[in-house]
Amino acid sequence: MVTTRNTRDDVVQAAGRLFAERGYHGTSMRDLGSELGLLGSSLYAHVSSKQDLLVDVVEEGARLFEASAQNALAVEGTPGDRFRALISGHVDVVIDNIDVARTFLNEARMLDHEHRSRVVAARDAYEGAFRTVIAQGVSEGYFREDIDPKTSSIFVLSVLNALERWYRPDGPLDRDALVDELSMFAASALS
After folding, report:
1. For 120, how many CA atoms within 13 A lie in the half-sphere containing its CB?
2. Burial code of 123-145, b = ≥16 C-beta within 10 A, e = fewer?
3. pTM of the predicted structure, to 2 decimals
4. Neighbours of 121 (CB within 10 A)
5. Which of 176, 92, 76, 180 is nearest to 136 (CA)?
6. What is the pLDDT of residues 129-186, one digit of tens each?
7. At what angle do helices 113-139 and 79-96 cross, to 10 degrees?
8. What is the rounded distance in angstroms from the CA atom of residue 59 to the CA atom of residue 136?
9. Which domains, from first to last, does the chain contain?
10. How many CB atoms lie within 10 A of CB 163?
11. Measured between alpha carbons, how far is 94 from 163 in angstroms, rounded to an integer?
C-alpha cells in the first residue's frame, strides 16, 4: 500500500477548492481534513489556522492578477492592444485558476484587517492598470474623451469578475471567442 504525504501546497490547493465551493465560513478544518484524507487536527502540522490558508489562497490570486496586468502593460502597440491584453489576462487567470480566482473575488473580505488591507492595495493596483490603459486610450483617441477612466475600469472589471459565476469551458464560447466577445463589448462601451 502506497501512501502519499500531503504537502502544504496540497493543503492550500484543497482549501482554495473548498473555499471556492462552500465559502470560507462554510468550510471547516474537518472538511479540509476529509478532502485530504487527514484528521482535522493533523492539518495543523501544515498550517497554524484556517485564516492562514485563506491568506495563502487570496494572496496567490492577487499575484496572478498582478502578473497578468504587468504582462498586458508591457504589450507594444495601441491602448486597444493593451486593453485587449488586460481582458485576455483576466480571462486566463479566472479560467486557469478558477478556485483561486473565486476565493480571491468572493472571500477576501473574510481576511483579518492586516491581510485585507494588503489585498485591497493589490486590487487597487490591478484596477489602476485598467485605469492607466483606458486613460491612454482616451488621450490617444481610441476611447471617447467624455469617459471617466476610474468608473470605466470598475465597469469593465465588474463584467470580468462575474465570469467565474457563469463561464463553462464546455459552453458555446471557447477561450478565444470569449476574449473576443468581452473585448468587443467593453471597447464598444468606451468608444
Report:
1. 9
2. beebbebbbbbbbbbbeeebbee
3. 0.91
4. 11
5. 76
6. 999 999 999 999 999 999 999 999 999 999 999 999 999 989 999 999 999 999 999 9
7. 150
8. 29
9. 8-45 (1.10.10.60), 50-190 (1.10.357.10)
10. 18
11. 7
